[in-house]
Design goal:
about 70 residues, mainly alpha, elongated
């Protein structure tokens, strides 16, 4: 199964991203909720992209004949 530490880290990262987005609303005209969701979504997309790139590179390196 999935390591509980990894799940806790993911949840804490999501909370931190949302809070940073909510704080960002102090400097913009957006609502704190919308701003928090926006930063959380951007961070989530970036995390998934980074994970997929890592997965691809691991596959590439493990199958090469170096």
């Amino acid at each position: 199964g999935t390591d509980p530490t990894f799940i806790i880290a993911c949840v804490m990262t999501g909370v931190a991203l949302f809070v940073l987005g909510a704080l960002k609303s102090r400097f913009t005209q957006e609502s704190w909720f919308r701003s928090g969701c926006e930063v959380l979504m951007n961070g989530g997309i970036a995390a998934v992209a980074a994970y997929l790139v890592g997965l691809f590179l691991e596959t590439l390196v493990s199958t090469s004949n170096c």
